[in-house]
Amino acid sequence: MGLITLKSLLIITIISVILAIGDTKPTDGELVNVAKLDMFVDELPGMPKIYGFEMKNGVHVSKSLEIGMFMKKWKFHRDLPATPVFAYGTSKETATVPGPTIETLHGVPTQVTWQNHLPRKHILPWDPTIPTAQPKQHGVPTVAHLHGGIHEPQSDGNSKSWFTNHFNQTGPTWSTKTYLYNNNQHPGALWYHDHAMGLTRVNLLAGLLGAYIIRDPSLEGPLRLPLDRPLIVFDRSFRADGSIYMNGTGNNPRYTLSGNLSTSAMLS
Ligand SMILES: [Cu+2]
């Protein structure tokens, strides 16, 4: 569908999210045999767009965004039950997996306040045998990282700068609620994702990822691209009840191995 030319500022993003799942044998709950699911029965979902700039007096200026993380249910396939996920969005109702596509302009900074609205408990198991963000009370530690972004360190989503619901608890390097992305680097397609210490793979598996695009109309306009749609490819394994499967035995270092053993690939 359409041509993909990296040089041409593309805006077709293909991101492969490879997550360590551990064992292929389920220990708790029956896995869905995805070979039995009909393919291409769902329309390609279009993620909502959020603009990281606005026009004032004929000039593009910086914009401050607030993007939350919410627990909700998400339909990954017509014949799968709805799946509990963690989703980025401007509200629980509009939150999606992947999250909204953030559209920015080269040279116009975007500020994002990432808000954690997640529940006290995670929807997936944590591995206690590796160094992990440990809130003293309940809560799911999160911190957003703009992958490939070039900006100040305090906005980079350091794994120890995590925070829980309403910033109730914060990690040792946490310093600011609002992140500043300069958007001064080459235009192109990036992605954002959670980055909390020891929980990155779990939080991504739960759904905390999305596309981030830096545009430069002076480069892109003359190309007159016929198609402009970010694509994200990611994979998951599902239990029969629709929930995401993740091995929960906590047998270090099983969780830390990289490699993709999920059963189903999804395109959004
Ligand atoms: Cu990354």
Give me the secondary-structure topology.
Elements: E1 16-17, E2 49-51, E3 53-56, E4 59-74, E5 83-89, E6 99-105, E7 110-116, E8 144-147, E9 178-181, E10 188-194, H1 200-206, E11 209-215, H2 217-220, E12 233-236, E13 264-267
Bound molecules: copper (II) ion.
Summarize the structure.
With 268 residues, this protein is mostly beta strands.
Give an overview of the whole structure.
The structure is a single chain. This protein has helices at 200-206, 217-220; strands at 16-17, 49-51, 53-56, 59-74, 83-89, 99-105, 110-116, 144-147, 178-181, 188-194, 209-215, 233-236, 264-267. It is mainly beta. The chain has one domain: Sandwich (Immunoglobulin-like). The strands form three sheets. Strands 2-6-11-10-8 form a five-stranded mixed beta sheet. β4 and β5 (83-89) form a beta hairpin. The two termini are 14 Å apart. The structure holds copper (II) ion (CU).
Rg from C-alpha positions? 19 Å
Q: What form results from the Cα inertia axes?
A: globular
**CATH homology group:** Cupredoxins -  blue copper proteins
Query: Which CATH architecture?
Result: Sandwich
Mean pLDDT: 85
C-alpha termini separation: 14 Å
User: What is the chain-wise order of helices and strands?
Assistant: EEEEEEEEEEHEHEE
Number of domains: 1
